[in-house]
Amino acid sequence: MRYMDGELSPAQAAKVEEALARSTEVQRELAVFRMFHRDLTELRLHDPPPGRSAWDRIHGRLSRPMGWILMGVGAAAWTIHLFWVYLSSTAPSWEKMATSAVVIGVLVLFASVIHERYLEWQTDPYRDIER
Question: In this structure, is residue 131 part of a structural domain?
Fold first, then answer.
């Protein structure tokens, strides 16, 4: 291989050329290696589709959990603050209960839609198919 790549010293190259002149077996092996070399240098890999490279997957695996953690911490802090404001306000209790019912209803609907989409995503036979 070093002979084909031109990496041998002149003395080593002369030895290889002597062996080539003496043996047809060595000539045959050199011809096979040259064919392999030519075929491998002409070989081109397909470019990966956009968004599907290994780095994109690694980025997704690293950034997505961090995003969920930050969102959870922020939502918890926001909820605690709203709960404190809600309890310390001077509004009548019927207004608080009506507001609570609306907020809880929206949250339950949102959670049910997310759960339904998740179950649908798990059984979707076409989720990994690209156009």
Answer: no
Residue the block writes with tokens 């695996």:
61
> In the numeric block, which tokens belong to residue 26?
């060595």
Q: Determine the Cα–Cα distance for residues 130 and 64; give it in Å rounded to an integer.
A: 22
- Rounded Cα distance between 54 and 64, Å, is 15
Residue given tokens 């997957």 in the structure block? 57
> How does pLDDT run across 79-111, given as a tens digit for each residue?
899 889 888 888 888 888 898 899 899 999 999
Domain that holds residue 121: 92-126
Longest dimension (CA), the chain: 106
pTM, rounded to two decimals: 0.40
Same domain, yes or no, for 79 and 97?
no
Q: Is residue 60 part of a domain?
A: yes
Are 83 and 75 spatial neighbours (Cβ–Cβ below 8 Å)?
Answer: no
